[in-house]
Amino acid sequence: MSDSVNSVSSPASVAGPLAVPPVAQAGDSLAEVATPSLLLDLDAFDANVAHMAGAASARGVAVRPHAKAHKSVTIARAQIAAGAVGVCCQKLTEAIPFVNAGIGSVHISNEFVGHTRVALAVAMAARVSLSVCVDDVRQVAPLGKAAQRAGVRIAVLPEVDVGQGRCGVDSTDALGRLVDAIDHYEGLRFGGLQAYHGSAQHIANWDERRDTARRAADQASAYVRFLAARGIACPVVTGGGTGTAEFDIESGVYTEIQPGSYVFLDGHYGSLEWRDDWRFRHALFLASTVMSTARAGIIVCDAGLKSVATDSGLPRFWSSQQAGQPQYRTASDEHGVLALASPDEDGADWLGEPILLVPGHCDPTVNLYDRYVAVRHGRVEGVWPIEARGLSQ
How many domains, in total, are found in the chain? Predict the structure, then answer.
């Protein structure tokens, strides 16, 4: 008995540690990609980047894409190559990979407080053109003093509430106090206004979304007129996003827009009403494999809650609008259950089949992964790191 035990255990002692196999390599077919994996369809991605860049350029509006959607230096570089002026980030640490990669213009489109964050902002400002947001005079002084000590200059954009009801001042008096506070420090300069209405991005009805975006632009315009009456030029009005970009570009108010999800078109944005040629293409997919067909009427794939965010709904089986395709119904940690057309249907033929899912919300789904598998015409073209994954401080 003792010899038998030793003979079983001894191979592990000499084999050494196991290496995690690569998710994919250039030239692989889709069937060879390890699952679950995040796939980026490069043809659709290229078309989406070109679409937004061209529409904004035609109206003289700058595009500063939101890197919180993709968290990838490679994607940011592709957007800048198409004409983007830089990137937005929501958190300071999220911006670090982009700063280190030489992305020259970074906007932190969110407020921050605390000595550590102020010190990080100042360190960034020594390397790139940095702009940040404030909505309270108490945020201004620590930043101004630190910037002055370090000999850097930071553009500061007061955030104005244009309907979101979250961050941002909601009166001209409060805006005036912020501008005065910024002007007090040599290390700071008034950079314009942050005027973002996040909820407007997600209104399904096209007419309602347009009307909400117009009201937001009108409120932003009123703040610009207030500043002009005080003799203060407003060089930038930045905001907007994927859902309202078509309206913000035409508003005559926004000088810069901050769309993020347009590069991917997740399930939620894909469910909105779009008109003319403004619908983007689905470019982001979750590659999964059917791993169990033990029960009639369902198939089970290997993509569950640890693989896809469900805050904006469950993922959608690609081409599920076609009759007879399975519907993703429930998710647990490591399992995704898809219902077949009939509860009596035998799904045995699905076992081992690769499937594609469209995530409901791209941003938190991307944050679950270390890399994109970039594919074109069914073949892996490259594996792109997601450098800012998990950087949320």
Answer: 2
